[in-house]
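Z., the sequence and structure:
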Amino acid sequence: MTKAKMITDKGTMSIEFYDNDAPATVANFVKLAKDGYYDGLTFHRVLTDFVIQGGCPNGTGAGGPGYSIDCETSGENQYHDRGVLSMAHAGKNTGGSQFFVCHSRNNTSHLDGVHTCFGKVVDGLDVIDDILEGDVIQKVEVED
């Protein structure tokens, strides 16, 4: 199982990826992380009791890596629950680098089957609640 630590201004979130359920999405995120793509980017969108969103290189929510990846929504673990990492997109198969982390299941169930769940925060869940818009992702360290 692939794991990572997302080090932010507010603390560290330990992540376990859904290697079997969203392999291409996990591989994409891991490659970007290892390349340092996420280092210094901000959480540009924070909505209380919904999500914290990051991964936009220009901090507006309109940027990406210059390519798109396909959605992987038919595997297991495709439920947007507290701590779940999911790919943000502007329509089916348009994701790239932007991701979000769910605050809870309360307002996210409508995302099931629409956005690819590709991992979950297993330690540092309190960090999700502390993140504010503009907080920085200092680094994502993938554990090989």
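The longest strand covers residues 11-17. The beta strands are 3-8, 11-17, 43-47, 51-54, 84-87, 99-102, 117-123, 137-143.

Let me know what you think.
H.
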